[in-house]
Design brief:
The protein is mainly alpha-helical. It contains eleven helices and no strands. Helices cover about 80% and strands about 0% of the residues.
Length: about 250
């Protein structure tokens, strides 16, 4: 099946909408299963969209941008995986391309975040001048870099075809990929540092230590740590204030 420029434009718009809505309440539109289903409707095969979306959903369980963490973009991965799965008639091929695209989007996510800081600094200057309409404008325009880092790659990938996607991935300089990966590792640490700065860490230091040991030494997944945290919170409230406060 040949994917024309019309399909490329529609999927680019869908990719843009997905990431922008993710910055708001979300409504789960950016989830892989939904991204794959909608893409399947656009390209004419919902079955492939469900298969690719379900597979990527399983891979994304427990993964989220906590504290600004940069993670694979499974929304874009589902879009491209479904599109190329339908185009090639092979779900496995589409899934392989989708996973590669999701990983590649880590680098573009870092780039999008970096560009967006320009709007933040501009908003700060407007605040100093008391121009709140300017602050609102910068807030509204801030989603453009994020959206374009998804829409442009999706459009080019669909328009140029899977061979171009694979060739571009192999063409990327190793130093550039290494630099983006390093930046992606630094951002989570910075994000968590900012979060910890707003929390009463000293008061609840034992809980922080327990979480660190579970993750760093015992390799417990995030979902497991979350369940343990809920259980500890209930026990803490019961011991501190009685069962009526639990």
């Amino acid at each position: 099946m040949e994917l024309g420029i019309g399909v490329a434009i529609l999927l680019a718009i869908w990719a843009y909408i997905g990431i922008v809505i993710n910055l708001a309440p979300g409504l789960a539109w950016h989830e892989p299963i939904i991204a794959g289903t909608v893409t399947g409707l656009i390209v004419g095969d919902v079955s492939v969209g469900l298969q690719v979306g379900a597979a990527l959903t399983l891979m994304s369980l427990g993964m989220h941008t906590y504290g600004g963490t940069t993670i694979p973009d499974f929304h874009v991965g589902s879009i491209l995986g479904t599109a190329f799965g339908v185009a090639t008639g092979n779900v496995e091929t589409g899934l392989a391309i989708g996973i590669s695209a999701a990983l590649l989007m880590i680098q573009l996510d870092v780039f999008g975040r970096a560009v967006t800081t320009g709007f933040i600094h501009a908003a700060d200057r407007y605040v100093e001048k008391g121009n709140f309409r300017g602050v609102t404008l910068m807030h509204l325009l801030g989603h453009i870099p994020w959206g374009l880092t998804r829409a442009i790659p999706v459009f080019l990938a669909i328009w140029l075809g899977q061979d171009a996607v694979i060739a571009f991935t192999e063409w990327m300089p190793e130093w550039f990929m290494a630099g983006m990966q390093t930046t992606g590792r630094i951002l989570p640490a910075l994000g968590f540092a900012l979060l910890l700065g707003q929390l009463p860490v000293k008061k609840y230091l034992p809980f922080l230590a327990i979480g660190y040991v579970l993750f760093a030494y015992l390799k417990v997944p995030v979902i497991g740590i979350a369940i343990a945290a809920i259980a500890l919170a209930v026990l803490y409230m019961q011991v501190k204030g009685g069962t009526e406060n639990a």
